[in-house]
Amino acid sequence: MARRELITTPFTASSTADDVLKGVDLRGVRAIVTGASSGIGAETARALAAAGAEVTLAVRNPHTTGRVATLDLADRASVRRFVESWDGPLHLLVNNAGLVTGGLERTREGWELQFATNHLGHFALTTGLHDALARGAVERGEARIVVLSSTAHMRSGVDFDDLQFVRRPYDPQLAYARSKTANSLFAVEATRRWQRDGIFANAVNPGGVATGLQRNFTTAQRESLAAAEAAGVFSYKTVAQGAATSIVAAVAPELAHTGGHYLDDAQEAYTVGNDAELADHPHGVKEWALDPVLAERLWTASAELLRARDGETG
């Protein structure tokens, strides 16, 4: 089967968030950015606000200025409170927050913390905000969801037989990789389910950016990152450059009314199925991160986990 033509934009790896937003007027746009107290999230929120958007910073520790709301993605009650407090339409949701652990940590439910925070927390938040996004789509013709993934997704697909690392020894790098694959799969299935509501989700790889995300890296994780840089898989970007691909997914006309894509360096990434293809396309996306069957399976599994925790039925 012939590959379809990939979506391209005028921007590159060196473009900044402000470059993407030059001349863009976002007045009237209501946006939420998770993990916006520092790093890529803070830069994404700043750039959107500078273009006129009304941005709510959803952060775990609200020690910053602007429209701030407390949100702990690993805490179901915190996510529920945030959703219940949201009033009115939502036009843009940027699921930026992420967590890396140096060892095995679990939530109160017993869920592995990286999967619980990076995927399940955002899953609960986004599904809880569906109606607000649908109202936003009615107002502006579409609503967008931006989900931050990572090159790390190439290390592993989602292990549906052991989502919480109960059966196998814990590897924090593997756990992070699974959560980043899950982020991409979420964008695929959210678009399939919600595009008729005018809601479209895309996953982005911001590239290598030195942020607080690396503070818990083990020696092995740091060595792995250095090896990937040496192999040319990525080169370090500034925070402004790292936020650019998120902004592309949020505002670029090339991505209007389309979703389920994975973006890297401001372009849609080439899908690779094996290491030989990866050698030719180091900024690609693995097939397992875009597989619609796996995306639907993950959605179902995630919903079941949340229902079991909340004591819901049906």
Largest sheet: 8 strands, mixed
Question: Which secondary-structure class do the elements indicate?
Answer: alpha/beta
Give the tally of β-strands: 12
- Give the end-to-end Cα distance, rounded to a whole number of Å: 39 Å
Assembly state: single chain
**Dominant shape:** globular
Order of helices and strands: HEHEEHEHHEHEEHEHEEEHEH
Strand content: 5-15%
| Neighbour order of strands in the largest sheet | 3-2-1-4-5-6-9-10
Return the average pLDDT rounded to an integer: 91
Task: Please provide a written account of the structure.
With 314 residues, the chain is an alpha/beta fold. 40% of the residues lie in helices and 14% in strands. Helix 2 (39-50) packs across helix 8 (239-251), helix 3 runs parallel beside helix 4 and helix 4 packs parallel to helix 6. The protein is globular and about 50 Å long.
